[in-house]
Amino acid sequence: MWHGRFKKDMAEIVKNFTQSLDIDWRMAECDIQGSIAHVMMLGHTGILKPEEALKIKSGLQKVLEEVKEGKLIPSENLEDVHMNIEARLTEIEPLGAKLHTARSRNDQVATTTRLYLRERLKDLSKNLKELLKVFTSNAERHINIIIPGYTHMQQAQPISMGHYWLSWFEAFYRDMKRLNFVLEALNECPLGAGALAGSTLPIDREMTSELLGFRTPTRNSLDTVAQRDYMTDYHYFASVLMIHISRLCNDLITWNSQEFGFIVLPDEFCTGSSMMPQKKNPDVLELARGKTGQVIGNFIDLLITLKGLPMTYNRDLQEDKRGLWASLNTVENVIKIMTELLSRVEVDEKISLSGLNKGYSLATDIAEYLVMKGVPFREAHMKVGKLVGWCIENKLEFKDLTISQWLEKIPEADEGMLKILSPRESVRRRNVYGGTGFEQVEKQIYEAKSRIS
Length: 453
Ligand code: ARG
Hints:
The chain is mainly alpha-helical. Helices cover about 60% and strands about 5% of the residues. The chain has helices at about 10-20, 20-25, 30-45, 50-70, 80-90, 105-140, 160-185, 205-210, 220-225, 230-255, 285-305, 320-345, 350-360, 365-370, 375-395, 405-410, 415-420, 425-430, 440-450; strands at about 145-150, 155-160, 190, 215, 265, 345. The chain starts with 11 loop residues before the first helix and ends with a helix. Bound molecules: arginine. Arginine binds near residues 24, 80 and 317.
């Protein structure tokens, strides 16, 4: 297409090295969509005659059919999706030679990629919403189940399992907001930026922007062809989401171990061992956790590609899509499989509760009870701490102590205290906004559902 300037054809090895069909052919339909808008604008502004524009448009529609039916086989000789489409169009309709008027592949690729990413992200957004729904329905299923809450991987305080699920609702809800931010970041139309400086021809950028469903044309042509911020925004969204996924998976893998036994994973989502007949392994969770590194790696890959690139377009930017696709596929698959798996997770109520009785996870409850009786918190903390130490030495649990033993260690104690000494009471009494109290969790479920309805 640029033969004018050259005396010799491109070397075969260079053709193969520079082509990008393996990464950009998947955007063929979006590329045609962009070209149709462009040519309609050329006709509307009088840069092309209206009838020429219409002929080119119907040629593009024929190419679109061929693409959809898988009949158009792209050629490496034509480097990328854009040139293949244009070449096929020109075979069908010689006026196709006018399509690339007032356009460069630099603004074209930026437009096509945004259109394609927009489609994929809209699907992703629907799937993410399904994942959010699972957290609210799991919270409903498990609101009355009590599990130990951990800090430093040490038993801290009892919590409602419903509260635990809702904590993930919040994290993935923020991911949803970040996803919406990405959709907004890409919601500007690059067409008309040209190679870098716009065009001498009287194009109408508002028109192409509107035809393609963008909010507005991009404001600066140099910025448009040089920057890929909307992609880094996507990678940031994807990386944070995968970090959430991997931490969630890690909890479930731990709780599925024999030592914990808090949860039961669905058979259909586990695998066995080729050697050990007893095994039921949480491979799906491990793989989801394992894929997180690739998604973060793709983010870093793009950041490094961009770092120090001179303004404006450089061919390095062609490498921007490889990691993007990989990461999109991973995130899509992980969200779908996690939604299915989570909706089938069961909690073993007895086991998750039994661990708590052995520990001293009600120690804070006692200290706070004493605070209500006027004991300064630091003093209460010290007294209960000493009591825990004494219990450990004497191999006793709080529930084994008689009232006289209590009074001996903590004179401010009274009978009322014995009533609060159960994990269920402990959860129930944490009735503060955002806390784990059953009443609060119920309100939080209601509120969470209303946010995604
Ligand atoms: N395939 C190229 C890409 O994805 C299209 C732009 C080529 N532009 C150029 N000036 N060589 O970046």
